[in-house]
Amino acid sequence: MSNFGLYVAMTGLFAQKKCIDVTAHNIANASTPGYTRQRAELSTKDPWPVPGLNMPREAGQLGTGVQVKTIERIRDQFLDQQIRQQTLLEGEWEERNNALSQVETIFMELSDNGLNSVMDKFWDDWNQLSKFPDSSPVRTTVVESSVTLADTIRHTYSQLKTLQNDLNEQVRIKVDQTNSILNQIADLNKQIQTVSVSGLSPNDLLDRRDILLDQLNSTVAAEVHIQGDQTVNVMIGGMNVVDGFKATLLTTEADAQGIYQVGVDLGKGNNALVQWSDLGGEFQGLAEARDNDVEGYMEALDQLAVSLAREVNKLHMDGYGLDGETGITGIPFFVGSESASEPDIVSSASSIYINPYLTADPQRIAAAASPGEDGKPASGNGNNALLIYQLRDQKIEIENAAGEVVSTATINDFYKSMISKLGVDADQAENMVINQEALVTQLNNRKESISGVSLDEEMTNMIQYQNAYMAAAKLVNVIDEMTRVLINLGKE
Predict the structure, then answer these.
(1) 43-52, 121-130, 140-149, 282-291 — which is least confidently predicted?
(2) Interval 413-417 mean pLDDT
(3) Which end of the chain is less packed: N or C, by CB atoms within 10 Å?
(4) CA 384 – CA 365 distance, rounded (Å)
């Protein structure tokens, strides 16, 4: 009798001690990022006697105590999936928002150095030249403002190109980071399976893997499939990138322009490219920003520069300068290179310059619309400069690189519409980030209420386990006293 009772009491001591150990682990990790609250699940041990032919005759089965069946994590897998889906969208819009914010900074439209202000100065100086065509200082001012305009256009384009290259490099960096995560998940799969097949609960290892899966799903759309041995298989773009202990890495493949595409390494030098929409997350955000947002504003700046140069050159080439030597037609104002010998046609915002022939001598600027006596320009004739100034309010056809008309507007209005679109795009991206952050925060708060450690709750549990432990210890003392009484009966 005494041995049976002591055994039951002993199971109570061991079980409550294990519960206190789990509580201590929870308290110690209350502030650990990614930690999931654990709980010891108690169950009764098999009763005695077991039914059979040789079972002793008893009034009924007796309980044999308590056991810790398992130590489980308190986690909602469906909530995890929701958080990862929304974090994926947040990652996409954060990348676009960051890129568009940088584009706004590049255009500097809130400062006096913005392209709109520089263009206004350019037009105003042509207006002044139309009034004072024989003034050397005014001609010098036209050259200076024109050089500033061309420099600003080129510099803006160069900064956009640098941003595009940075975004392209970020794609490669994200691939390296993603591959590191995939390798770590595969390594953890091996450790988790080793613990799991031995009948234990690899809770802390599962937490570490879930942190990696959360990080992965902010970067790329990853399908996670939990296996029976608690390992996970991960798929990207319909292809396995983690299969048990094996990780298949992502690759980057550059096109002729050096633009990276992302694929999955199939081995033997073969890659399967993945669509950006299938990648999602930060990858898709980087691609949208690089290939659509930044590229779109670079193309618009190209269209502005080419159209501006074309229209100004048309008028300037029909005009006349002040000196008799250049009082002829055919001199372009804007050129596509800094070379005075071969001034190419302006074909891009990256290569718009003032004709070196004019910067060398501003008297050669064709402000006059007609020659004076003997074919020489008439002093005070600024009609051609006036025509160039009037381009400011004249609608022209804006063409793309293929020669297709994309807009009919004034140069200034075309630029303002471009900046207006940038503002709309940037506001949309910022609002999407704010909305996604709020949604993810709300979901994480729900997750914290389920999986997070509440110190008040843990202290309550600790007192409960402590009382149960003390009761089991008291039971041991009672059985010990009863055994002593029984032993001493024969001595009296």
Answers:
(1) 43-52
(2) 95
(3) C
(4) 10
Q: For residues 229 and 193, is the Cβ–Cβ distance under 8 A?
A: yes
Question: How many whole angstroms separate alpha carbon 106 and alpha carbon 157?
Answer: 9
User: Per residue in 160-176, pLDDT tens?
Assistant: 999 999 999 999 999 99
Which neighbouring-strand residues pair with 38?
Answer: 73
Asked if 184 and 142 count as a contact pair (C-beta separation under 8 A), the reply is no
Rounded Cα distance between 142 and 354, Å, is 11
**d(C-alpha 104, C-alpha 116), whole Å:** 13
Residues in Cβ contact with 492 at an 8 Å cutoff, skipping those fewer than 6 apart? none
Average confidence score pLDDT of the chain: 90
CB atoms within 10 A of CB 305: 26
The DSSP output letter for 199 is T
pLDDT band at 1 (very low <50, low <70, confident <90, very high): very low
Cα end-to-end distance, the chain, whole Å: 21
What would the pLDDT profile of 214-253 be if each residue is shown by its tens digit? 999 999 999 999 998 999 999 999 999 999 999 999 999 9
Is-above-0.85 flag for pTM?
A: yes
Cα–Cα dist 164/298, whole Å: 10
Nearest residue to 466 via CA among 154, 28, 146, 13: 13
Strand partners, 368: 320
Evaluate whether 273 touches 250 at the Cβ level (below 8 Å). no
> Per-residue pLDDT tens for 303-359?
999 999 999 999 999 888 886 545 556 789 999 988 765 667 899 999 999 999 899
Length in residues, the chain: 492
The CA-atom distances, in angstroms, between 18 and each of 51, 203, 334, 357 are: 31, 15, 83, 90
Partner residues linked to 399 by β-bridges? 405
Enumerate the domain spans of the chain: 2-74+452-491, 80-102+163-290+425-442, 129-162+298-424
- 294 Cβ contact partners less than 8 Å away, ≥ 6 residues apart: 99, 103, 160, 163, 164, 167
Burial zone of 401 (CB within 10 Å; 0-12 exposed, 13-18 middle, 19+ buried): exposed
Contact present, 175 and 262 (Cβ < 8 Å):
yes
CB atoms within 10 A of CB 53: 4
Q: Measuring CA to CA, how many Å separate 8 from each of 63, 85, 330, 476?
A: 8, 49, 108, 9
Provide the token pair at 406: 């994309």
Q: Give the mean model confidence (pLDDT) for residues 64-79.
A: 92
